[in-house]
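Final report, closing paragraph on structural work. Over the funding period we assembled a curated collection of sequence-structure pairs, and we close with a single example.
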Amino acid sequence: MKRREFLCTLVAVGSVSFAGSARAAGETMVVHKDPNCGCCHAWADAMKKAGFSVQAENVDDLDAVKDRFAVPADMRGCHTAIVAGYYLEGHVPLDAVMRLLAEKPEIAGLAVPGMPAGSLGMGDDPRASYDVLAVGKDGSSKLYQAVRPKA
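Its predicted structure, as stored:
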């Protein structure tokens, strides 16, 4: 790659990152989590670093929170966050959150069921492979984003 192409690429990537941070700035996110869960804390910290105003709510009964927001049983993950009227269930990656806030689709939220290795808050594994699902207000789900290993 030529120097000029490299510099243009670097500026473009930086602009996208800055724009995402600007969108997150001032946006309040409430993260309902287990008080003893380290991965939930790591996920919430990543959201803070991205510019969200994060309020962590330690709760003993996460199922009650998930029931209140009508998160389907098969979509449930480690923690439940609420931002801009959507829920983020589990280890939803930052780029999916930013896309959600930019597009504002007619859905209830995004979900990463379970606790996939390498997902945000679950370590830095370049072999991470999992799906981010868009969950409709009727409980149906469809693929929103596929996270696959980088080649």
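The CA atoms of residues 66 and 80 lie 7 Å apart. The first helix runs from residue 3 to 24. We thank the funder for supporting this effort.
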